[in-house]
Amino acid sequence: MSSAIDKVSAQIDANRAGVIQRLADAVAIPSVSGDAAHRPQVIQMAQWMAKSLEGVGCENIKFKELGKQTLDGQEVSLPPVVFADYREGKADAKKTVLVYGHYDVQPALKSDGWNTEPFKLEYDEKTGRLYGRGSTDDKGPVIGWINMLEAHRQAGVELPVNLKFVFEGMEESGSVGLDELIAHEHAQGSFFKGVDACCISDNYWLGTKKPCLTHGLRGVAYFKLHISGPAADLHSGLFGGVVHEPMTDLFAIMSKLVTPQGDILIPGIKELVTPLTDEEFKRYQVMDFSVQDMEGATGSKTTIADDKEKILMARMRYPSLSLHGIEGAFSEAGTKTVIPAKIVGKFSLRLVPDMTPAKVNELVEAYINAEWKKLGSKNTLRLEAEHGGKPWLADPNHWNYEAAAKAVQKIYGVAPDYTREGGSIPVALTFAETLGKNLLLLPLGRADDGAHSTNEKIDVSNYVEGSKLLGAYLHEIAAATA
Ligand SMILES: C[C@H](N)C(=O)N[C@@H](Cc1c[nH]cn1)C(=O)O
Ligand SMILES: [Zn+2]
Ligand SMILES: [Zn+2]
What is the C-alpha separation between 313 and 1, in angstroms, rounded? Predict the structure, then answer.
């Protein structure tokens, strides 16, 4: 006799074309939270989410409004956080799992180097891959929950736990207003009441073959460095060598932040990092991972370190500093001889225990001010600390992780790796601390999915098996805690 999860899995297989179409419909909405011009589409995506959740039997669906923000010099509405409940049968006797995900995406233009239109899901039959912005981060995994609920209903299988969904539309842009909303709802004691554990599917396997459970995330501190001088852009023939140039100043400062070997040059940062123990080092040694996996994920042979443990630690347990871009710089084809009058350099640090954005902001500001003085420039500098989030680390010795490990074994036939993610989901810590419940990251996508990059994809197998995995996880929770 087939088990409940076998029936649900068979139903997901039968729905294959439909679940791919559902992802295509979502990818077609360019819900780019970082661009004011796309804000109506982010809000459209919230409506799409609400309708989809309603269609699979969710109740109590609410748009939690967060007010307004100023973006690109315009006042725009923040996209709502979508709350929903799923309960059936003897709900009061069941465990309740809080599920978080995000329906916004990173920007994407075909001209960035995409092979296909980023907001049109393209299925490559030869490779079994689905290309499109948000396919893996985070529309695919978010829709995995919906696919799983749909299949339960169609297969006539009762969901053995209650679910509480929280889907936001600002994760890629600092989760503005979300922490306050969670604190407020928690204090009111209504929506989060009865939550037993939390789960987020918004990160990636370590490689391309083996699923993992993730119990840590790096935090983030994002900065914008504004440098301005001349009243307007200048002709370099007439004014080159005559004025202090903002771009030259910016390069001088940005080049003092990090070395090409990845060493952060800001004094005091390294001292904040929790020391490595032998026990922790052994965990990196046993992880199923190779230098070639990282080369596959980056599509290059450019790793700084040449051994597995150093690469894993660089990703999981040490901070990093990345330079992201320069706004206002001449970047088109051609040879324009301009001196830009004002420019904005963008960089961020990934934070690890025991770093906090507040402490990092202090160190970055002191260092940049000191370096600026050394330049002797007459231009004006302003450092803006943008969004930040603390790192998070959980105890994987908990029934939440045990259930997920059993589900991985059931769907994939292997025991998962236990990883820490290099990326950031600041709200993970907020949920864990505010609700005081165990939180699990259960990724669906692979290391080479190209999240945030050009040609972002999710493999159909990860998307379909992942939808099954989310269902199996919930059944294992019910079995383990019955
Ligand atoms: C891991 C998650 N899918 C993700 O991509 N998080 C983002 C969060 C962020 C921070 N600044 C802008 N977005 C990330 O780690 O970059
Ligand atoms: Zn992302
Ligand atoms: Zn994400």
Answer: 46
